[in-house]
Amino acid sequence: MNAPENGLHGAETDQTYARAGFGAAVPRGTSPVLVVVDLTRGFTEPEFPSGADLSAEVEAADTLVRAAHESGAPVVCTAISYTPAEADGDAIAWLRKAPGMRSLRDGSAEVALDPRLERHDTDHLIVKKGASAFHGTGLAALLTGLGADTVLVCGATTSGCVRATAVDAVQSGFNTLVVRDACGDRARGPHDAALFDLQAKYADVIDLGEGVELLAKAR
Predict the structure, then answer these.
(1) Is the pTM of this model over 0.90?
(2) Residue 8 — pLDDT band, cuts 50, 70, 90?
(3) Residues forming the active site
(4) 6 pLDDT exceeds 80?
(5) What are the pLDDT digits (tens) for 154-208?
């Protein structure tokens, strides 16, 4: 589910964004943290109503995770999970718009991290209630405590939780990179649109090779 190459959005679109001053390069630091957004079974396996076959994206994300483990770069995984009271109640506004997310309940198969991802006991887990991994969580403080100067984001879905997390990463003061090969969605159109918008305004959208290289050089 790769994004279109630069320049394929049409000359008028490219000129409009260039005139507005979008698309500058994001600095690359030497203390990256990898944030793996919601690669849980409910999103990565097509057997679940909220899922799709994200096998290729999980494999790419696992490549990033292994590179981080080898260099000692921190890994933060996220998962959406609701208590019965939250899932069955009306207190969480997002669930009124997206009632399908009510199946993401504590202890269910849907909220388990995809077993194809390498996990270490030193990896961090952020449990969230909404799209962004920053909203209502301690992620910003955790990244600061880990000494992050660059945040690499991957996961699912590109147009939802990945985009929301990347936008909030920038707004929290972190240089942000999104690894396109390790991001997946339920449909190509939203995936491509989200990557286009992220590249223009919030993050650099990079390929898997660059992501692995940056993590391998972590100090």
Answers:
(1) yes
(2) low
(3) 161
(4) no
(5) 999 999 999 999 999 999 999 999 999 999 999 999 999 999 999 999 999 999 9
**Could you give the CA distance from residue 213 to residue 209 in angstroms, rounded to a whole number?**
6
pLDDT at 4 over 60: no
SS (H, E, C) the chain: CCCCCCCCCCHHHHHHHHHHCCCCCCCCCCCEEEEEECCEHHHHCCCCCCCCCCHHHHHHHHHHHHHHHHHCCCEEEEEECECHHHHHCCCCHHHHHCHHHHHCECCCHHHCECCCCCCCCCCEEEEECCCCCCCCCCHHHHHHHCCCCEEEEEEECHHHHHHHHHHHHHHCCCEEEEEEEEEECCCHHHHHHHHHHHHHHCCEEECHHHHHHHHHCCC
Pick from 82, 215, 83, 84: nearest CA to 154: 215
Fold of 30-216: Rossmann fold (3.40.50)
CB 151 within 8 A of CB 32: yes
Domain boundaries, the chain: 30-216
Ramachandran class of 21: left when φ > 0, alpha when ψ lies in -120 to 50, beta otherwise? left
